[in-house]
Amino acid sequence: MGDARPATRHTAPGTATRRRGAVVAALMLSMALAALDSTIVSTAVPQIVGDLGGFSVFSWLFSGYLLAVTVTLPVYGKLSDTFGRKPVLVAGTVVFLLGSLLCALAWNMGALIAFRIVQGLGGGALQGTVQTLAADLYPLRERPKIQSKLSTVWAVSAVAGPGVGGVLAAYADWRWIFLVNLPIGAVALWLIVRHLHEPERESTKRESAERESAGASPARAGAGVDWAGALAVFACGGVLLTALVQGGVAWPWRSAPSLALFAAGLALAALVVVIERRAAQPIIPGWVWRRRTIAAVNLALGALGLVMVAPTVFLPTYAQAVLGLDPVTAGFVLSVWTLSWPLSAALSQHVYRRIGFRDTALLGIGAATLVLLAFPFLPYPGQAWQPTVLMLVLGATLGLFQLPLLVGVQSTVGWSERGTTTASVLFCRQTGQTVGASVFGAVANGVLAARLGGAGDLDSVTRALDAGPAPEATRHAVADAVHAVYLGASCAAALAFLVLLCVAPRRFPVLGNPDD
């Protein structure tokens, strides 16, 4: 399992550096597109609904995109290991830009939702392949630099998304939210096509020679791809994630639609297992769960997805309803962790070089557990600086947790397995966020219902904030609900700690020279 790198080593050093710099710029632009489109639509919903109608289903503008991104991650990971990163990233960028153009041309809400799903189909390739290429481009000792850059781009883009969407919707037209992707994506696409060069891998040459010696015809594109498994994974993930996203929102958890979706999802999951066991080149190979290191990182980053739901989903409502802040200031309280997270991630290399990947991540998630446990003990109603400080510290702890795990697990596999491995851990993190939004949403609504006598949920409280400050009883109820969510998030963080402690090896089995 050799570690093939882009073909820059055989060129002049200056040319190689410029070429890699151009590719990194393309990766950052691609990451910005994927992150922006996760949040940019949120503040433009009133204008979109006013133009196209469909208020009852507008939530699918977000759910459809995120579902498509999540369920395609494993597929793109396997494709990038089979055909190379470049064709997958180019194809994904083209699909994403096509979806963006179609969204701008949408004539009703149904069409816009369908085109957002097309966007998500391309967004899955952007997220997974960008992270994989970052590991291909840089040796282990330099990977924290590129990963911290990508983390910064992701964090800034995700936080800036609502503001950019609001400005475009207010001063131009909501369709520009999607049209603005075209020039940015076109530049990224040109840089990738022009400057990213991947050499033919030894495994590819060997497989071709074996086919020829056996008298077989040259390999056809896609001949070795487990398309049945890809379709089954897509269907299973789509059904189960839809059940989680819509349960308790579009229908009660114990209603016929919810139970039918979960039953169908479990049946499809069984089908996935059967297909993947029989496939020669499965989309989700069994080794991603049989190897202790990869399995532990999958579970730990799945727990991270749960943890991230508490601040990203519930803190803005807390800041507005309990602290009485305006939406912009409430957004600032949340956004401060985007300052400490990438900084901590960039500095984490100095820690994991001394104590190892696992122990660095244990240090980070252990500290994060304490920070999350501290939130319910904030004074009521409190002041804005108090949750702001906690968020600043939380970002630092999670940067110390996530990046060592990602860099470490990518370093335990060769080129031909890195795409699948990266997609696996990103898929688990995305799935954790989906599960967390459903579970913690149910917890928060349950606490609100108990405190308000069964009259109210978090969505109704959020909408009521547009009319003015929340009543005192509602403020107390929201505080209790968000405190319960943070307690749940601390339990998820403690679970991640236990998984790493009990499952992950103390020293990751890094391939080759750790300083390469």
Mean pLDDT: 82
- Could you estimate the helical fraction of the residues in percent? over 70%
Residue runs with pLDDT of under 50 for 5 or more positions: 1-10, 203-223
- Approximately what portion of the residues adopt beta-strand conformation? under 5%
Q: Give the CA-based shape.
A: globular
Q: What's the alpha carbon Rg, rounded to whole Å?
A: 23 Å
Enumerate how many helices there are, as a single number: 20
The class by helix and strand makeup works out as mainly alpha
What string gives the helices and strands in order? Answer: HHHHHHHHHHHHHHHHHHHH
Based on the model shown, name its key terms:
single chain, 516 residues, mainly alpha, 76% helix
Can you give a write-up of this model?
The protein is mainly α. Helix content is 76%, strand content 0%. Helix 10 (227-246) packs antiparallel against helix 11 (256-278) and helix 16 runs antiparallel to helix 20 (472-502). The longest helix is centred in the C-terminal third of the chain and has 37 residues, at 415-451. The two termini are 15 Å apart.
